């Protein structure tokens, strides 16, 4: 599955309508963002059951502000609509693959039932 561009209008529906969503906040002028893009795209090909979305922080400034993006790239991961990972900086391929597997293995329902809220992985 290829990555998809995400706008403010689609954000909540995408996050809440899919089991796992990775969101890459980026900008075209950002060197680390451009360097991370092929890693993000390659991972999307390995995990067709996961939504890989990209938010252009220049085009979607209000969404980036609402998400409290302070530096880019920033990767956020949602599972069943809950934020489970939020980190600035580009991940190397092996770290991204490990993160995806951890999120797949993470029992979000048990975490919510146990704590009423979710701890980030």
Features of this protein?
121 residues; alpha/beta; 5-stranded mixed beta sheet; 5 strands; Thioredoxin; protein-disulfide reductase activity
Estimate the mean pLDDT confidence: 94
Helix content: 40-55%
Fraction in beta strands = 15-25%
As residue ranges, the low-confidence spans are none
Helix and strand content put the structural class at alpha/beta
What's the shape?
globular
- Output the number of helix runs: 5
CATH architecture: 3-Layer(aba) Sandwich
Gyration radius, to the nearest Å?
14 Å
- Which strand order spans the largest sheet, edge to edge or round the barrel? 1-3-2-4-5
CATH level-four homologous superfamily name = Glutaredoxin
Supply the CATH class: Alpha Beta
How does this model look, in words?
Belongs to the thioredoxin family. GO terms for molecular function: protein-disulfide reductase activity. The mean pLDDT is 94. The protein has one domain: Glutaredoxin (3-Layer(aba) Sandwich). Helix content is 44%, strand content 23%. The two termini are 24 Å apart. A five-stranded mixed β-sheet has the order 1-3-2-4-5, sandwiched between helices. It has 121 residues and is of the alpha/beta class.
């Amino acid at each position: 599955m290829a990555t998809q561009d995400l706008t403010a209008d689609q954000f909540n529906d995408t996050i809440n309508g899919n089991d796992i969503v990775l969101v890459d906040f980026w900008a075209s002028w950002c060197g680390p963002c451009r360097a991370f893009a092929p890693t993000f795209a390659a991972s999307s090909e390995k995990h067709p059951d996961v939504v890989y979305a990209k938010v252009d922080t220049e085009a979607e400034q209000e969404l980036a502000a609402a998400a409290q993006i302070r530096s880019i790239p920033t990767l956020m991961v949602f599972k069943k609509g809950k934020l489970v990972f939020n980190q600035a900086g580009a991940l190397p391929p092996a770290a991204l693959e490990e993160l995806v597997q951890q999120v797949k293995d993470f029992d979000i329902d048990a975490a919510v039932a146990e704590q009423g809220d979710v701890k980030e992985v």
